[in-house]
Amino acid sequence: MIEQTVREYESLLCDIRHQIHEHPELGLEEIKTSELVAQKLTEWGYQVHRGMAKTGVIGTLKVGDGKKTLGIRADMDALPIHEASGKPWSSKIPNRMHACGHDGHTTMLLGAAKYLAETRNFNGTLHLIFQPAEEMINGGEMMVQEGLFEQFPCDAIFAMHNMPGFPTGQFLFQPGAFMASMDQYQVVVHGCGGHGAMPSKAIDPVMVASYITTALQSIVSRNVDPLEAAVITVGSIIAGDAANVIPDNAVMKLSVRSLSRETRELLLKRIPALIKAQAESFGATADVNHINGTPVLINDEAMTQFAWQVAKQQFGEERAVYGAKPLMGSEDFSFMLDENPNGCYLIVGNGEKGEGSCMVHNPGYDFNDKCLVPGSAYWGALTEAYLK
Ligand SMILES: [Zn+2]
Ligand SMILES: [Zn+2]
């Protein structure tokens, strides 16, 4: 089994993971991380392309004369969080931390890279895609826009994320919508400031923002199909600072999620329309700015079946779960799947109670090293199965 072969260099993989973990780098600043990735890939005989989306790295390995091409993607960026995991390999940089396990994702793909270069038990072209800036900056979208799939054509693409709360090394698969779309808005409600004792001489943007907040929930309850998932969160309202002053304006920040392209389209149409009309109904106006958006992540059904079969064969039924619940978080691999829909994004369990169960984006989180061998072995098995 591949797992046994990869286990022979488990300590090397742990070293690599800890090295990346100690030096976390934010999106588009993955200088040291991408250097390490490129150096390892070169050492193992990959053709290495650097500089896509600033710090992206693509390692290509061609074996035999097979025409099929496969892309596997890992993310490399860290978060602006101050680490409190207490691990010996904790971040050495204040307020920077690998709190989403991208250090582990990068290392699992490197583990597969080493295995596949040494065994060469496939026929075709393999592209290992190390992307920057998954968190908030959409590095995946940047790579697609910079011609990732024109320069490195992939017949199918895959990616994996760890998830605390599931058994260590268990693999989870879900066809169709798996991760939500995420859109953000900044809204400025323009009223007319005045004395708190003379509201009739003013247009109160605080009251308008409050009505908008309430009215927005009617989109979820009255416009969205009740069988579809949607979330509209007003996470911030900032206006005024004195009890007896009506301010000129109010600034609101919204985060919006959905699990289908149709629902997202409806939300993106209804939200600005409702905000503007609601403001107008009070004699105010509103500027509505869509800040950034990530599409719904949709897994191809046949590719999800295929990816699940690989896990079943490699690790047995118990460790390969088909039919996971979709998650309302977002993931910029969706940009790659929108461009190249023949693919699947899957989850590897980071651990239940105790080890590995601390949620991602928490200062106490750490990627579970016990996932490194199964994760690397999985990518090895998937490559051998797809590029037969
Ligand atoms: Zn994250
Ligand atoms: Zn992540």
Automatic annotation (TrEMBL):
Question: Is Manganese found in the keyword set?
Answer: yes
Give GO MF terms, alphabetically. Answer: metal ion binding; N-acetyldiaminopimelate deacetylase activity
Mention one GO biological process in which this protein takes part, according to its record: diaminopimelate biosynthetic process
Cofactor binding comment, as recorded: The Mn(2+) ion enhances activity.
Pfam families, from UniProt? Answer: M20_dimer, Peptidase_M20
- Which sites bind Mn(2+)? C100, H102, E135, H161, H361
Sequence ranges assigned to domain Peptidase M20 dimerisation in this UniProt record: 184-280
Among Gene3D superfamilies, the record links this protein to: 3.30.70.360, Zn peptidases
Which keywords describe this protein according to UniProt?
A: Hydrolase, Manganese, Metal-binding
Task: Name the needed cofactors.
Answer: Mn(2+)
Q: Manganese as a keyword? A: yes
Q: What NCBIfam families does this protein's entry cite?
A: amidohydrolases
Can you name this protein? Hippurate hydrolase
Query: Which organism is this protein's natural source?
Result: Pragia fontium DSM 5563 = ATCC 49100
Q: Upper taxonomic classification of the species?
A: Bacteria, Pseudomonadati, Pseudomonadota, Gammaproteobacteria, Enterobacterales
